[in-house]
């Protein structure tokens, strides 16, 4: 105890000489004790926010804990701020908060993790205003303060180190508010709209002198400027999308006034994925060229690309929507230097100073242009970790626990790669169902036998070998919807290997198998449906 007390006293004395470490470096706080009034080390705590009860929030927590243990750090106390969707009911996607807790708490105990949860009610906080410079309403500010007070109560005996949002950006705004209230590193709440609102981010780029996309925000088709109503001499089509949604929900490619009117009427009548009513849409010029995805980790303005992908999408003529087809890992980000440098300008213009960012852009004939930026890590599980050796969460964990070493370990925006460019290729294939139907687990076995098959993604039972085997033995099946966007994609297949020709062959075979995969509704015994 004497040694601990002396160490703590020495650390307090040198605190003023280590400002660059920030709040993250102080993993332990001091409190009073009878024997040594100034010393009582307490555990560090990580605060996670997840708006709805999805597995994205849980996977972010477990990945962070695993990365922390991999660094040899002691386990932090995990405090999760979790809400529920207003329409939550029974079902695999609408599991209620109490049902999730029955699974999480025993699991945390089994792995020796101290887990605490804040029940933030049906919705974490009301959507804050998307207009920069306009303060939040009294009700919004009160809701934020109420949640922050609940978190403080759970942090008794702990010292918060970082606040981390889940892979769905619906909780990102509250997360930044909590970071400010708890005094941990984060971004400025006042500039959050630049990172969430798809109209404001283009304005932010233009104000910073960065090439932006010509666009407008309109609440009705008659409010769209004539120059953005195709066809025009310069535009064959425009793209319209909600100001704050995800998963390509509500994204439409419009080729004329009639399609513009129909798309506004269809998209505006439904709420976003997060249950928020749409009051306006972003309409912008269509970008042509290869599309890239950049995943960033930032610490005090120092940006690092953890992984980059070349993405391919297709437009659905019947719905004017867009669906993902595949993504290929960029083996060496130095080969796309122009794209990466533009991505750095984007995150800086949008006010990213700390944490993860997911950036999508297009390399047009005039240079890179931003599609959108999301203030969170890439959705679902990282897909290149086994090939690259790291991912966004592992880099973020380094930034949290070893902030002074982060710029030394990653001095460049390009992540260091042992032995030069990666030899292992990774391809993500997005499956697409043409109609409503059913998929039996047993019929997925030929996919698992492909030479380059690595794993499934976007469906929990498919990712777990044990659960998958149980579903095969029990002859289970899952219902699927017609694929009209990313959120209705039935599942994803991750392929990996050193031979690009093998990846091409397996993708071709995968599409052949997919043709016989989706059965008509009612084909299988309803009792075998996976809940």
Describe it.
It is globular, with a radius of gyration of 24 Å. With 531 residues, the chain is of the alpha+beta class. The chain is built from 16 helices and 18 strands. It has an 8-stranded antiparallel β-sheet with strand order 13-12-9-10-11-14-18-16. The protein starts with a helix and ends in a 17-residue tail after the last helix.
Q: What ranges have pLDDT less than 50 throughout 5 or more consecutive residues? A: 1-37, 86-96, 128-133
Q: For the CA atoms, what is the radius of gyration?
A: 24 Å
Strand order of the largest sheet: 13-12-9-10-11-14-18-16
Class of secondary structure makeup: alpha+beta
**Share in helix:** 25-40%
Number of strands: 18
Question: How far do the termini sit from each other?
Answer: 53 Å
Q: What about the largest sheet?
A: 8 strands, antiparallel
Keywords:
four-stranded parallel sheet; eight-stranded antiparallel sheet; disordered N terminus; 531 residues; alpha+beta; 18 strands
